[in-house]
Amino acid sequence: MPDRTRLDGRVALVTGGSRGVGRAVVRRLAELGAEVAFCYRRDVGAAEELVAELDGRASAYAADLATPGAAAEFVAAASADLGAPTVLVHNAGIASSGRSVEHTTQEEYLRLYQVHALAGAEACTAALPGMRTAGGGSIVFVSSVVARGLGAGLAPYAMAKAAVEALASVLSFEERTNGIRVNVVAPGLVSTEMGDRLVRAGSASSAAESLDAHYPFGRVCRPEDVADVVGYLAGDTSSYLTRQTVVVNGGGNPDTLVHEG
């Protein structure tokens, strides 16, 4: 009996794959057998290091998703090199500045909306024709518990992530007869550079590591915890799941971001 967890022979694209959660997702998809292409914004060294580590199972493309059209260009370039993807993970994101709503600029709102939501829509638009031709696929958006509006100083981030979840819901309906599943992974606080910035933006007094005690498992979420769920949603063992949001926070209280310390 074939192993339905495997992704052998499939092409998977990941936005924002050089660091943090995206890096763990690229690793996990490659471990499952997929040929992975990921984009990165500026950290060439980290991208090249990951490509070397995975020994030919991944390729990297420079793309600043704050630029309209860049996500579609990444999908087009990777598809030309590897073939049409049947797995797309939109993970790319940037953190809020930490300003209150009163002091947040329109520029910040628009920049986060572009990277989180519009770039996701652009990537899907570019990837969908190939998925339909292949008979189906899996799209996974990485959101956040912050999409529920938790955290002072996080309005642009929360609004952008809420838009991501709305996009995923609509897209799941539109593509349900084409064999394309669309799901969301919503982590709590993740132990990454951006996770630490979100803690500080959310007015907590300490970094991610000092919040471990507030979680039932004694630690905050790790990038690999998110990547494992993404790997599951990408494969055939989740073939009956679509329009779902999987919260990955270890049973922790998301209010910890702002109310503790």
From TrEMBL:
**Which InterPro entries does this entry report, sorted A to Z?**
KR_dom (IPR057326), NAD(P)-bd_dom_sf (IPR036291), Sc_DH/Rdtase_CS (IPR020904), SDR_fam (IPR002347)
Name a Pfam family for this protein: adh_short_C2
Listed under GO biological process in this entry are: fatty acid elongation
Question: Which GO MF terms are attached to this record?
Answer: oxidoreductase activity, acting on the CH-OH group of donors, NAD or NADP as acceptor
Domain (Ketoreductase) ranges = 10-190
Cite the entry's keywords alphabetically: Oxidoreductase
Q: Does the keyword Zinc apply?
A: no
**Does the keyword Oxidoreductase feature in the UniProt annotation?**
yes
Q: What highest taxon heads this organism's lineage?
A: Bacteria
Family assignment from sequence similarity = Belongs to the short-chain dehydrogenases/reductases (SDR) family.
This protein's name: 3-oxoacyl-[acyl-carrier protein] reductase
What broad taxonomic lineage does this protein's source fall under? Bacteria, Bacillati, Actinomycetota, Actinomycetes, Pseudonocardiales
